[in-house]
Design goal:
single chain; Serine Threonine Protein Phosphatase 5, Tetratricopeptide repeat; mainly alpha; 26 helices
């Protein structure tokens, strides 16, 4: 489960305990009220086992007391007994279907235990009974965990209509918008949250989105502000290193990655970042040493495999590069990048075929590498038509020229490769890894050796 998905689900349990419980004392039996009061006191002081025993005694006297079942379920969950808790919540809701706190809590526990279908049904019922921000947020978290990003965004939108100033809702929607690729929307949400509470972690997240959006200067500003409060903030050092690379300040980026590795010598991302800085400085062999170490530490991380494959390809070891990139395809089959590289290097085209039937420019690249789209058609698609496609023109041209250059080398056409790499470098897509790789490879080809 991803870090973001885990954070979304943790929100559910916060929601679950927010509604006052409904007391349902059995009429005419003072022992019920006494047991309830004592159980509440036991819960307050953390004696959950004692509270459970008292609620069990209460249920023996009043088996139709829905709130007693609910409270025992709450105590059981706090002790880690999710199955027992769900049994109590089922009983509570059978007795008191209107017990919205029990419904919210069951939805939360179902989501935590992987029953997303059951959790979704509970949140649907909860929203039908009382459509408040917490219920919409709970269902949004479940939808996001199930991969329904659009539905989750709709629910966060509904929640924010009711509670427009809730920073948690804005933060979670920002993360989802970033996941979907809506960087402008994500930045708008982070701006709104930071305007209310400028916490370092929020500026760290905004810095990462700014970097993805091509605003290296804004990203550095955010990372600097985080580091001003904590000079050892590894995430900010890694982010600033990447932003400095994107802005062309390789020496400063290398210093950031060195700082990370001073703090944590075996940090895989620190090693990968230093490797990228070394690649851009012409230190290919030293970069591969860093990536070898990073992959040894974290062999199942596809991004590290891609980085190592690209470094090996830059060195000219296309066979080893193709193997490494094919491994990345196995680890992350939904990522087209390693599959495109494998095909361009001369490996199997079957890895890239699943992407050829999709929409967008990646599909055009895949079709070209499969021999289904000519060079002129690919470049025409990269240029695009109309203002709507203009912002991505440089990126598309850079990527097209990169893979055309790699394929030209595969076909023993070094002059054609140089021409394509030069055209890639001539674009304005200077923040792309493709641009940096083409520039480095062009320098190597120009020298005639590594």
């Amino acid at each position: 489960m991803s870090r973001h998905r885990s954070a979304l689900l943790s929100l559910l349990l916060v929601i679950a305990f927010a509604t006052p419980a409904l007391a349902q004392d059995a009429a005419g039996d003072p022992r019920v009220a006494e047991l309830r009061a004592e159980a509440v006191e036991r819960s307050k002081v953390g004696d959950l086992e004692g509270a459970i025993a008292l609620y069990s005694a209460l249920i023996e006297l009043a088996p139709d007391d829905g709130d007693a079942h609910f409270q025992r379920g709450l105590a059981r969950y706090r002790l880690g007994d999710a199955a027992g808790s769900l049994g109590d919540l089922d009983a509570a809701l059978a007795l008191a279907p209107e017990h919205l706190e029990a419904l919210s809590m069951r939805a939360s526990i179902r989501a935590k235990t992987g029953d997303l279908k059951g959790a979704r049904a509970d949140w649907d019922a909860r929203i039908a009974a009382r459509p408040d921000p917490k219920a919409y947020a709970g269902r949004a978290a479940v939808r996001a965990s199930a991969g329904d990003t659009d539905g989750a965004l709709q629910d966060y939108g509904a929640a924010l209509e009711l509670a427009p100033d809730d920073p948690r809702l804005l933060r979670f929607r920002a993360a989802l918008r970033e996941r979907r690729g809506d960087l402008a929307g994500a930045l708008a949400d982070y701006d709104a949250v930071i305007a209310k509470a400028s916490k370092p972690v929020l500026r760290l997240y905004r810095g990462r989105v700014r970097l993805r959006a091509g605003d290296a200067a804004g990203a550095i500003e955010d990372f600097d502000s985080v580091l001003a409060e904590d000079a050892k903030a590894t995430g900010a050092l890694l982010g600033r290193g990447a932003a400095r690379l994107a802005s062309g300040d390789t020496a400063a980026a290398l210093a950031d990655y060195e700082r990370v590795l001073t703090l944590q010598p075996d940090h895989p991302k620190g090693l990968a970042g230093r490797a990228e800085a070394r690649l851009r400085s012409g230190q290919v062999a030293r970069a591969i040493v860093d990536l070898d170490r990073a992959v040894t530490i974290q062999p199942d991380e596809p991004d590290l495999r891609v980085a190592r494959g690209r470094a090996l390809a830059l060195k000219g070891d296309t066979g080893s590069a193709a193997v490494e990139l094919a491994t990345a395809c196995v680890l992350e089959p939904g990522d087209p990048t390693p599959a495109l590289w494998v095909a361009a290097l001369g490996g199997t085209g079957e890895l890239v075929r699943p992407f050829a039937g999709r929409d967008g420019f990646t599909a055009k690249l895949a079709r070209h590498l499969l021999g289904e789209l000519g060079v002129d058609e690919l470049l025409a698609a990269a240029v695009g038509a109309g203002e709507a496609e203009a912002p991505g023109k440089a990126r598309r041209l850079c990527e097209a020229r990169l893979f055309l250059g790699v394929a030209a080398e595969r076909d023993d056409d070094p002059d054609g490769a140089r021409a394509h790499y030069a055209a890639c470098v001539a674009t304005d897509a200077t923040t792309l890894d493709a641009h940096a790789w083409a520039k480095a490879r062009l320098a190597i080809l120009g020298k005639g050796s590594d």
